[in-house]
């Protein structure tokens, strides 16, 4: 079997997949996030490792005489893991959703400039990116920074613990703001402009290339056999796209998990002149992707579920399905923790607009779902404007399990949408990369064709009952709200 391990924010997940693509077992180890100050978000890398050991042990114990042919890794992007000369963790990892680095992001924009950022990295300087965290650490924790010898990302720390080797791969390196997404190497010019020693950064290998093998120490803690190969793996969004078969131009991945994302593969690098869309290397060779990110997607609906009395998710959605498209004038901005695409505004906040005497919980639930869908449409529209067109989308994440939300996404995005199985997301993509690295398949395209099956398919019903017109009006109302509130957000937060 092949093993896929995902170092997520809320859990560490491990799955095992047979060479024929059958899901054999899965296990989760819950993770908690530390918030020592408002806007901060940290985790202890040792907790990741303990969670990995527990999840892998559970998977192996559920299978009689398991033979692991390869291990693939995926993980949360951007998170800074700082190690000293003895390879010890210096401080808790600063996570992707940590927004303490607004000043550092502004410094990079002012010092480097957007056009140079576009040329060198293909991405804007935002709080989430790893480079801003390094600058923050240098400014605010100089003693710890002086001890810094190695910088790793989340999944790469797990691979270090599994294999004893330090490395990364292009899809995760793309989220550091220190990587040239065009030529696939660390940007010495960017490092020089920021005064960052490029020697802190790990070597770069391919996502499906073998990056090391299980050591005796890791074998004792995980139950894996010594010598099992471990491949480079990929960033969570790149692995989720791989695990959904979204590895070629024309397909688009729509993620409705805790956060949301729109991922569209391209065969040549494309960057947004206004730097509103991310340009990243994919986990498959000679492929890039454009990505828009919604910070609160499923998290917005979960917040509303808890806030409105803790109703069952399915009951809420069934209520919302009875409200017509457009929520009878109610609009929701899902910016509960700021927003990434297209506004890149850490000060933005959630808003209900258009409340009136006829509004009930069902209207507000539907408005939340529509607000998230409109936020995803913002990203898709920007990608389309760059000349990258989609013929269909694959939906993944918890929201993809709701037929009502799936149909809403199809109508709002005006695209056919399908779901695929096994529905395991990023860890499945990691297992696919392991299967390629072990030589069972020649490419991610080949393994996707062998392992993936369409589960459901929906077409837009935009011409039925005025749905298209209703969503068009609601979307324009949604788009008008942020510009009207931007200055208020800045003054209030």
Distinctive features:
alpha+beta, Nucleotidyltransferase, domain 5, 7-stranded mixed β-sheet, 17 helices, 5-stranded mixed β-sheet, 2 domains
Structure in words:
The chain has 493 residues and is of the alpha+beta class. The chain has two domains: 2-237, ATPase, nucleotide binding domain (Nucleotidyltransferase, domain 5, 2-Layer Sandwich); 245-424 and 461-493, ATPase, nucleotide binding domain (Nucleotidyltransferase, domain 5), CATH 3.30.420.40. The model has no long low-confidence stretch (mean pLDDT 94). It contains 17 helices and 22 strands. The protein has helices at 45-61, 102-112, 114-120, 130-140, 142-147, 154-163, 170-173, 188-194, 216-222, 236-243, 298-307, 313-320, 361-385, 403-413, 426-437, 444-451, 467-492, and strands spanning 2-7, 11-17, 23-30, 42-43, 70-75, 81-83, 93-94, 150-152, 179-180, 185-186, 210-213, 229-231, 234-235, 251-256, 260-266, 278-281, 288-294, 331-333, 351-353, 392-396, 417-421, 453-458. A seven-stranded mixed β-sheet has the order 16-17-15-14-20-21-22, sandwiched between helices. A hairpin with a 6-residue loop joins strand 16 (278-281) and strand 17 (288-294). It is globular, with a radius of gyration of 22 Å.
